[in-house]
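Handout, section B. The chain below has 277 residues.
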Amino acid sequence: MLNKLLGNLEEGTLKVGSSEVEYVAFGRGETPLVAVPGLSEGLRTVKGTGKMLWLMYRGFSRTHRMYVIGRKNELEKGYTTRDMADDLAAVMDKLDIVPAQVMGLSQGGMIAQWLAINHPEKISRLAIVISLARQNDTIQQTIGNWIEMVIEGRYEDFAIDMQEKNYTDKYLKKIRPFYWILKRMGHPQSKERFLIQAESCITHDASAELSKIKCPTLIIGGGADKIVGGAEVQQEMAEAIKGSKLHIYPELGHGAFAEAKDFNDYLYSFFNAEKQE
């Protein structure tokens, strides 16, 4: 009964190669919408997060069947965002949700770029959110520091720095009193798995092939992003992807998806525009 109230919530596992991929699905709509999470998926998989994800994206439940798809549980060293896109394509085939609308968040946006480049038949509409096309000094320094913290076992420092880099001071004032709880969330389920995903972020470079993306594309970024860089990073992608739309939240950072009140509404309008075309 509860699952029906939550849009026919489903949590599942699929075999991909020699490993498994976790996914969450919900919503009663006919249009498949795939959400590809960011580096937080390297801390813990999407397993067990169905109710939280439904709460975040419940506005899509009426018009879409939403699939939040993680990475393989076991990752090989040197596993890249391009490799992740190939595995994502395989999962979409297994779920029989091709073509789908796709939203990639942060590292998920990097993966979604490769999905659109190498598997264009899989995507009908694409949103690249708070992401980038190629590494720069900002992401090298921020994620490089996170890698160092995790290697050294400084998980509390890592957990706090993630919050400080993601959000604006206004938002941080609300959550700093709860840092004692958040400190417990900085320990990855698998240290090695997180490090492989983090490394893939700072070696990502799809810039030379972005012009191959032909589906309707929306790019959203934060002008004060301390993780991937500001508006110029998003502008670079918008210029490379012909006909794409660009939306910048000038005062917000990497956590624009949590801070901007109209964030989900903006995405909803973009993805539902397909029905009006």
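Note. The two ends are 36 Å apart (CA to CA). Compare this with the example in section A.
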